[in-house]
Design brief:
The complex is a heterodimer.
Chain A: H1 2-21, H2 42-57, H3 60-69, E1 74-82, H4 91-104, E2 108-110, H5 113-129, E3 146-159, E4 162-175, E5 181-194
Parallel strand pairs in A: 1-2, 1-3
Antiparallel strand pairs in A: 3-4, 4-5
Chain B: H1 2-20, H2 32-46, E1 53-55, H3 63-87
The chains are: A alpha/beta, B mainly alpha.
Chain lengths: 195, 135
């Protein structure tokens, strides 16, 4: 009797340990919206990207530029200022916007920041190491017409176990010659979190 | 004479073309070089953040996070108090309490080597053994 009880207890404890340590991972569609903590997540980033792409490519600035200059505008991506209460990396949605520029071929895009430094370093290296027919020259970069900059802000209203969080993402295109802001896109996301 | 005149005309035309590019375009501010010189020096530092996200975040109040922080703070303060108690068992910093087995800090309740003269030891409460609670 005691032996049977001990055996049953041992089996039960092994079963408990294996099921307790068993972690389940399920692959889901990136477009699926699942909110767990109430913080900024992939769904927010996706919604922001979709809204910005629609607003930017549908804005009047594009047509105005083509009419005025006779060719498509060239954009360079500047920095995005995150003034919210969370760590939000803007590249999760700005990269989608950049990709839309390139895939639709309606807006030109030039490289900026650290990647541009790397390009110039490689070009400098080619001056000494690459063959004359294949080495690339300095002074032939395409100058951007507009710079894309942005801001992320948030408003938090919290009391005891409830809070309402509103994120506002704003992106703007500024004419590099005249400082004129030709387009401002924004996306507001509000969440009600109850613990 | 004619070839000389022609050569002089060509030289004059060339210099005119060369200087024309240094002139102002329509409506351009003649003091543009002041700004250009200033920003050329600062260009590298100002474009360092291009294509990145600059984080100037603030701390918002969250009820659960605040509660967890209070609990963590309480636990760490309790640990600190225990450490200080253990380090300050006697009044003499060099006294390890083992030298005299009949009069070390674990056996001696007289003089200064006791819990009642040590500011880090609580004196009142069930865990201290003081059932009178200071009465």
């Amino acid at each position: 009797m005691l032996k049977t009880l001990k055996l049953a207890l041992a089996i039960a404890s092994i079963g408990f340990v294996t099921t307790a340590c068993n972690r389940q991972v399920t692959r889901i569609d990136p477009k699926e919206t699942i909110d767990i903590s109430g913080s900024w997540n992939n769904s927010d980033s996706r919604m922001t990207a979709e809204a910005m792409i629609q607003q930017c490519l549908g804005g009047a600035w594009l047509q105005n530029h083509i009419e005025k200059k006779g060719k498509k505008p060239v954009v360079i991506v500047g920095f995005v200022n995150n003034k919210s209460h969370e760590h939000i990396d803007a590249e999760t949605f700005t990269k989608d916007l950049e990709r839309s520029f390139v895939t639709t071929a309606r807006v030109g895009l030039v490289q900026g920041g650290k990647k541009r430094e790397e390009l110039r370093a490689e070009r400098a290296d080619q001056q000494t190491n690459a063959s004359q027919s294949t080495m690339k020259k300095f002074g032939l970069e395409t100058g951007a017409d507009y710079i894309l900059q942005g801001t992320i802000t948030s408003i938090v209203d919290a009391f005891k176990k409830k809070k309402v969080v509103e994120y506002q993402v704003s992106l703007e295109l500024t004419d590099l010659q005249t400082n004129e802001v030709v387009w401002i896109g924004d996306k507001k996301i509000a969440k009600y979190v109850k613990n | 004479m004619k070839p000389l005149l022609f050569t002089l005309m060509l030289i004059g035309l060339y210099t005119q073309c060369a200087t024309a590019q240094d002139g102002l375009v329509a409506d351009q501010n003649p003091n543009y070089m002041v700004s250009q010189t200033k920003y050329t020096k600062m260009a590298d530092s100002l474009t360092a953040n291009m294509g990145t996200t600059v984080h100037n975040t603030y701390k918002a109040f969250d009820w659960y996070e605040a509660r967890e922080e209070r609990r963590t703070e309480r636990r760490s303060q309790r640990n600190q108090r225990r450490l200080l108690r253990a380090q300050n068992m006697g009044w003499n910093g060099w006294d390890n309490g083992w030298n005299n087995p009949w009069n070390n800090r674990w056996n001696n309740n007289w003089g200064w080597n006791n819990r009642w003269s040590n500011q880090f030891w609580p004196n009142i409460g069930f865990r201290t053994g003081n059932w009178w609670f200071g009465w």
